[in-house]
């Protein structure tokens, strides 16, 4: 608890940096507004005892004017205070979300395999918001608590017993509230976890909708969905009822409290120990006191759920990236684009997927990487752009260890095109120009031509047609050509393609292969391929099996010398 409080406030202080002036202004205006509410009971007391009962009627007018003045100040101060604070805290909320967004972008790939995307957006947008709301709640409550103090002083001065009585009830109230804290916290946590599960399930379901349709599991999925909803609802009802019960109990206590004060205070005035004005003021203070007390207990109560928010926010903010950039990493623009791999070993967890990899990808040439599925081809490609670092060994770009190069420089020079995210949900134009700025029309046309993107006329809005999820679906072969066009526009020094031609027909494949032939004039080209034709146009073929290099050479040489290569070629020919 203590530790959580500490990290709660240290995070708050962190985000308040640069906003102190606005926050101070907001709090001071808040205090002014609260002072205005305190003045009313005092005016009432004066009006009753001195002006009306004491028959000093000439003060009537000035008291009315004073009341109006106080009300106007109250209105202005509280409006401005709220505006200033909400503005600061909305900004803080955006900043916190952006920070989380950034750490998530650099989170290890393994993180995304574990975490459902619904859950990620729940934390990124929901938990941060609740946390910032609670921070704002604290700052808003500070002026109120000050008022609590001041009114307590007055009450004690007027009648000690009555004041003590009020404070004892107050203590009882807080105790009861604290008894409800743990069960409420538990249920809030459960509701959150369930909500996250439901949202993750929903996102996942619509993502696999084609699969659902294909094997007709709609009814099953409906049942699953409804079952989760029912579980969520039952938890929500329990949580709602527990907190309602606690609220009702609180209201009951505070009613009993004000009635008791009225009876006891009434008796005091009957015996002439207290003026009517003081009793009225006492009652009004009691009413005013209810706000800060409710605010305080609310804060205490909600801190339990805020604690859950805090833990979830911190967990994401503290994710350590797999790949860390060195402080002294350099900006580097390679002249050649030569990739060297030296004694590389890599494992996912304990499972070794690449070992003893020694190879060079020379500039101005095409190297094909072939091998059975699961042999480690994609993993090798990911190592070259530092999605992960090798467990052992080193990778060089033009002789410089890629860990000494700034990530942004490295990924500008070496671009990996992965088959699973060739296109995303946006217009064709945005897809083709993604990652580059100010692309001229000529360059785009050139890229479309080279990548054999010849289906524009078939699309309803041509270039502006939205493709991907929620738009027009391109065929797998068309998708590959769009990705190739993007690659051509980005024109990095080193191209790595993961199966760029696996879904195109022979004629398109020829066109694309021609594009590769031209690419190598300026760049290093690495193609992960299952196609024989790609191997044929390559200057060199690297054969991978089970994470080991089984041979390197030209297609022709390997066909003569390498039994393993002969075998996979035979299989490929059979497939054709
Ligand atoms: N993120 C991951 N976590 C754990 N294991 C992984 C991960 N990615 C891949 N693997 C495993 O590593 C091995 C190599 O995978 P990789 O994707 O590099 O193979 P590949 O040669 O590209 O295969 P394919 O031809 O099917 O694309 C496989 O056994 C795979 O199951
Ligand atoms: Mg692969």
Task: Describe, in short, the structure shown.
The protein has two domains: 316 residues, ABC transporter transmembrane region fold, CATH 1.20.1560; 237 residues, Rossmann fold.
How would you describe this protein?
This protein starts with a helix and ends with a helix. Strands 6-9-10-3-11-12 form a six-stranded mixed beta sheet, with helices on both faces. The protein has 576 residues and is an alpha/beta fold. The radius of gyration is 35 Å and the shape is elongated. The protein has two domains: 2-317, Up-down Bundle (ABC transporter transmembrane region fold), CATH 1.20.1560; 339-575, 3-Layer(aba) Sandwich (Rossmann fold), CATH 3.40.50.300. The longest helix has 53 residues, at 218-270. α14 (441-450) packs across α15 (476-490). Helices cover 65% and strands 11% of the residues. The chain contains 19 helices and twelve strands. It binds adenosine-5'-triphosphate and magnesium ion (MG). The site of magnesium ion (MG) has 3 residues, from α11. The site of adenosine-5'-triphosphate has 12 residues, from α4 and α11.
Secondary-structure map:
Blueprint: H1 2-16, H2 20-53, H3 60-105, H4 109-114, H5 117-158, H6 160-179, H7 181-207, H8 209-214, H9 218-270, H10 276-317, E1 339-348, E2 351-361, E3 366-370, H11 377-384, E4 392-397, E5 400-401, H12 407-413, E6 414-417, E7 426-427, H13 428-433, H14 441-450, E8 466-467, H15 476-490, E9 494-498, H16 506-519, E10 524-528, H17 532-537, E11 540-545, E12 548-553, H18 555-561, H19 563-575
Parallel strand pairs: 3-10, 3-11, 6-9, 9-10
Antiparallel strand pairs: 1-2, 1-4, 4-5, 7-8, 11-12
This protein binds adenosine-5'-triphosphate and magnesium ion (MG).
């Amino acid at each position: 608890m203590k530790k959580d409080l500490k990290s709660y406030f240290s995070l708050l202080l962190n985000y308040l940096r640069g906003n102190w002036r606005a926050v101070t202004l907001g709090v001071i205006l808040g205090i002014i507004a609260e002072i205005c509410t305190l003045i009313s009971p005092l005016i009432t007391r004066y009006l009753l005892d001195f002006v009306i009962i004491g028959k000093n009627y000439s003060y009537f007018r000035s008291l009315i004017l004073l009341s109006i003045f106080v009300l106007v100040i109250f209105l202005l101060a509280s409006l401005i205070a709220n505006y200033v604070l909400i503005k600061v805290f909305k900004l803080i909320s955006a900043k916190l979300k952006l920070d989380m967004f950034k750490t998530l972008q650099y989170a290890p790939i393994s993180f995304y395999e574990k975490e459902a995307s619904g859950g990620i957006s729940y934390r990124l947008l929901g938990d941060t918001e609740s946390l910032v709301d609670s921070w704002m709640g604290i700052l808003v409550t500070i002026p109120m608590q000050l008022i609590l103090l001041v009114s307590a002083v007055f009450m004690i001065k007027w009648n000690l017993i009555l004041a003590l009585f009020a404070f004892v009830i107050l203590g009882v109230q807080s105790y009861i509230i604290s008894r409800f804290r743990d069960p409420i916290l538990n249920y809030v946590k459960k509701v959150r976890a369930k909500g996250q599960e439901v949202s993750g399930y929903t996102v996942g379901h619509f993502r696999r909708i084609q699969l659902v349709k294909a094997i007709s599991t709609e009814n099953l999925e409906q049942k699953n969905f409804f079952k989760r909803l029912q579980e969520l609802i039952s938890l929500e009802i329990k949580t709602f009822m527990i907190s309602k019960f606690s609220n009702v109990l609180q209201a009951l206590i505070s009613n009993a409290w004000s009635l008791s004060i009225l009876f006891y205070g009434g008796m005091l005035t009957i015996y002439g120990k207290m003026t009517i004005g003081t009793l009225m003021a006492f009652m009004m203070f009691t009413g005013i006191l209810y706000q800060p007390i409710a605010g305080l207990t609310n804060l205490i109560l909600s801190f339990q759920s805020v604690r859950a928010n805090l833990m979830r926010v911190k967990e994401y903010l503290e994710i350590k990236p797999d790949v860390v950039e060195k402080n002294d990493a350099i900006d580097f623009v390679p002249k050649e684009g030569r990739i060297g791999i030296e004694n590389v070993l890599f494992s996912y967890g304990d499972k070794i997927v690449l070992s003893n990899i020694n190879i060079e990808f020379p500039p101005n040439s095409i190297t094909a990487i072939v091998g059975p599925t699961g042999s480690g081809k994609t993993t090798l490609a990911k190592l070259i752009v530092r999605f992960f670092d090798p467990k052992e060994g080193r990778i060089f770009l033009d002789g410089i260890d890629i860990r000494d190069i700034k990530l942004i420089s490295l990924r500008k020079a070496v671009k990996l095109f992965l088959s699973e995210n060739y296109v995303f949900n946006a217009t064709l134009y945005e897809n083709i120009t993604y990652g580059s700025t100010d692309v001229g029309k000529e360059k785009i046309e050139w890229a479309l031509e080279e990548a054999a993107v010849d289906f524009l006329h078939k699309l309803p809005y041509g270039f502006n047609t939205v493709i991907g999820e929620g738009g027009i679906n391109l065929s797998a072969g068309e998708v590959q050509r769009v990705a190739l066009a993007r690659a051509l526009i980005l024109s990095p020094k080193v191209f790595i393609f993961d199966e760029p031609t696996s879904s195109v027909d022979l004629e398109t494949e020829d066109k694309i292969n021609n594009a590769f032939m031209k690419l190598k004039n300026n760049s290093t080209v690495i193609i992960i391929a299952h196609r024989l034709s790609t191997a044929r146009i390559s200057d060199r073929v690297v054969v991978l099996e089970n994470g080991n290099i089984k041979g390197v050479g030209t297609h022709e040489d390997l066909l003569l010398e390498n039994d393993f290569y002969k075998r996979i070629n035979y299989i490929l020919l059979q497939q054709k």
